[in-house]
Amino acid sequence: MILDRFRLDGQVALVTGGTRGIGLAIAKALGEAGARVVISARSRAADAEKSLSSAGIACEFIAADLAEEGAADHLVRETVSRTGKLEILVNNAGAAIHGDSGTFSDKTWREIMSLNVDAVFRGCRAALAPMRRQGGGVILNIGSMSGIVSNIPQNQVAYNSSKAAVHMMTKSLASELAADNIRVNALAPGYIETDMSRGGIANPDWFPIWRSMTPMGRVGQPEEVAGCALFLCSLASSYVTGEVLVVDGGYTTR
Ligand code: NDP
Asked: How far apart are the first and last CA of the chain?
């Protein structure tokens, strides 16, 4: 049955930034498909754990500030030491800081790059040993349509650059790791209603532009990204690697 290929029974999935927004929706989708889910963020979110557990999902939390060197390696090691394995890694945690390029500080640039790029690479690198040991695995990186187009009206040079790096990292790793039976894909969401985008949605100078640039005329919901994540994390996509799947209501068609 084709639906069986979406099942993840018995697998372990680590979702960074899994306490809210897109990460929580992905954790829920993978858990509903049968995975044991480890979620991570800087601060514990009892609500997230409760909502996963009450949906019957085996879930645990590991704290990590992924902007710190060594944190992603530690997180992956700790996950494997608690669960004994790691079939799925979702590098979802990310941050956006806007600003004009002429005054964009080195500190803010590094802040974005250390979380959105360095931690993603470190997480992928740390997952290789356990995935190779168990004969394969799946990595899903969360990029953005901002890694493909320079969306307007807000200026966000560091964010856009970081997400383009995530997309190319995904393709490079996919090529390198296919021989190890490790698939690496990315999602490139458009505007999705979460804490990250709420300020922009409420901004009367921004939101009408966001909406008019989006053929579907609305923002997306985290669950609309989570379905695509389940596809890419499961055997349903067993011949897909190095793909950046755009989930943007058509924004990048214009
Ligand atoms: P949210 O801001 O809603 O959630 C971010 C999650 O990441 C939280 O769980 C947060 O928890 C965690 N996080 C933030 N900073 C760190 C850190 N330094 N170390 C560890 N965890 C951290 O974001 P979204 O759900 O909107 O975004 C998720 C991903 O999707 C990001 O990579 C984002 O760039 C991408 N994306 C989002 C879009 C959108 O419109 N929302 C569009 C395109 C891409 P805590 O703060 O407790 O650490």
From this structure: 38
